[in-house]
Amino acid sequence: MLSTAEHWREDDDKLTFIILANGEGDLPMIGDVNIFLKGDPNDEDFEAEVGVMIAEESYRGKGLALEALRLMLSYVTASPALFTNPSPTLALPNPPFPFPIRSDSLAVRIGQENRASTRLFERLGFVETRGANAFGEKEMRIRQDFLSV
Fold it and tell me: Which of 40, 41, 102, 110 could serve as a FRET partner for 27 with CA atoms 20 to 30 Å apart?
């Protein structure tokens, strides 16, 4: 039986990047960015839910969540031009199945009152597609016109 840490690391329905502080010496973990895969990537209803957290308050508001999301979304969609600004060349390895995922399967759920996260995802081309659910979360997805740029 896998420990919690092993299960988290070996689970094939999510991808997590750890966000470290930039600096000298030890690089403390300040947050993470995640993609949670729901369903079969070949099915129409497949969804890749995006999440980001900057846990250390002193690192918030510095653009780190935006940069981490740009890197993650570029990696999982194999579409660096969609999410990077300016568009540097991003060497993507041949990722294992199910990557690259379809950009139209990306979704995020944000607390209805979380204006900072809403603005963050709007900068990445997400728009609200469903209002607050029973948990007070709204759903956002990539604008279709954003994908055709």
Answer: 110
